[in-house]
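ARCHIVE CARD
CATEGORY: sequence design from structure
SOURCE FIELD: tokenized fold
FIELD CONTENT:
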């Protein structure tokens, strides 16, 4: 199911595969540095009862500083090389969408709501950008952190690690169970946002008619109701 959602964007992402590869590499380095820092602190704490020399402490401090620098540079790298391509993918899809609109005849546009098309060309594309950039970041980050942390935990104390991991299969089942419902509710939010955009566009296009028939207050109330519904639909997503 997840692959089906990602598949349409793979050709766009393939175009920037070099930047994305650099970004993922930087993300891996940042995650590994985040694991090394606590380990170095553990070594310092374990060495304190043995009265380490000032040179030993300085060496630990230098290593901590070096790892922190690597982590900071890596974070800058994945922000640049993961979020950058996501904006380029958004730009490419936007250009293709506009080119496709130019090929459609007038009869098709007469059947569509302009506000809905505007929403698809703006809000939906921003959602795609977040999916490509932030979604890829979260996916890789979670995989690396989980695998590396579990590996270190098993090395330190296997029995305690197995006890800690008992709820993990249950959480995974619950996640995949609720994933379709999350998708449906998020889609409902996007569709309602299209309704709001359509409402605003139609009111702006027919503002003279609204003034002529003194419908300003009625339209304000409708707009308020649409926004309240939009808030409720977003809350339904967050509650789940």
């Amino acid at each position: 199911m997840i692959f089906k959602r990602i598949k349409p964007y793979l050709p766009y992402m393939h175009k920037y595969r070099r930047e994305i590869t650099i970004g993922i590499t930087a993300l891996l380095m940042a995650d590994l540095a985040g694991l090394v820092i606590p380990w170095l602190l553990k070594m310092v704490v374990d060495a304190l009862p043995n009265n380490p020399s000032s040179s030993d402490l300085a060496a630990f401090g230098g290593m901590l500083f070096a790892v922190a620098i690597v982590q900071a540079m890596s974070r800058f790298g994945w922000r640049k090389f993961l979020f950058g391509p996501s904006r380029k993918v958004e730009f490419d899809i936007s250009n293709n969408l506009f080119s496709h609109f130019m090929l459609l005849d007038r009869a098709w546009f007469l059947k569509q709501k302009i506000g809905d098309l505007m929403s698809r060309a703006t809000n939906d594309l921003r959602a795609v950008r977040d999916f490509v950039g932030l979604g890829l970041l979260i996916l890789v980050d979670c995989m690396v952190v989980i695998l590396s942390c579990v590996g270190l935990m098993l090395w330190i104390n296997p029995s305690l690690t197995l006890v800690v991991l008992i709820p993990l299969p249950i959480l995974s089942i619950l996640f995949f169970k609720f994933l379709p419902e999350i998708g449906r509710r998020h889609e409902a939010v996007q569709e309602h946002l299209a309704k709001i955009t359509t409402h605003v566009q139609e009111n702006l296009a027919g503002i003279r008619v609204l003034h002529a028939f003194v419908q300003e207050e009625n339209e304000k109330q409708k707009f308020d109701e649409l926004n309240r519904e939009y808030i409720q639909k977003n809350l339904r997503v967050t509650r789940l």
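CARD ANNOTATION: The radius of gyration is 26 Å. Residues 166-240 form one domain.
SHELF: design records, drawer C
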